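Lab notes, practical 5.
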Amino acid sequence: MFYLGADVGSTKTDAIIADEAGQVLGFGESGPGNHEVVGYAGLAQALYESVRQALSVACLKKEQIRGAGFGISGYDWPSERELTLQAIASLGLNAPVEAVNDAILGLLAGSSQGWGIAVVSGTGCNCRGWDREHKREGKVTGHGLWMGEGAGASELVIKAIQAVAHEWTRRGPPTRLTTAFLDHTGSSNLEEMLDGLVNQQVILDAKAAPLVFQVAAQGDPVAGEIIRWAGRELGELANAVIRQLAFEELDFEVVLMGSMFDGGPMLVKPMRQAIRACAPGARLVRLEKPPVMGAVLLGMEAAGIKPSPDVRQALK
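Output from the prediction step:
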């Protein structure tokens, strides 16, 4: 028996094929598949190319696949399900399939038993959760500050820009973020940088987030508070999903996904404090394995197979 999994992202798409013992037989990679970036035709093309490569490496035909799981960035709402499944159907698989938001893949791959909460903090942020039976899903919107949700790297940099602007207007205290951003943008002074930001001649985006962590590590109180704000916000995203799923009294794992968590304890500590105030039994764990592993587990579930601990370990 062979199972397919695909992790569809905004920058690339990974696909793997494994057997019933969890042995990975084939891998494929293609470009972005998020329909918000490339449309549903682009999603179908990204799936086709990555799956074609994986089948070729595994020396298998698509008719031999017995179950397939797909974690798809940008698949957030029920209204998107039909078009998402149509893109998957274009692969011509003769097997049961399941599609989820890509955050669920991290939960399947990173938790010990395949249920709990996953918090994503990369360029943006998201949070999803599944109960033990995978019957109930909890979620936030995944649409950032517009929906009152922080904090990915984009939101972190927005808060840092606000702090620098407050220094210039004398609304807030001086911060070393100003010097860091001036050096990063090549601006000669703060007014010039703000002028350039407003008129879109200067760019400060998610790629500048490591600077905020660096300045905070140097002891800057403004940058430090911004990092703590991000940690508390991420904790509250988790708490929202915890309350939706009534996990408050349970012991479970919160899987941390994304580059923001490279910031370490200064981000994770306030996040942990916020979560444990709501759910004392929560344990925070960093995702160490590729999320596409979770897609294969999802494919097995779609075929009616409950992966054993041995299968999970073999995939890892």
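Observations recorded by the TA: The chain has a mean pLDDT of 96. The longest strand covers residues 65-72.
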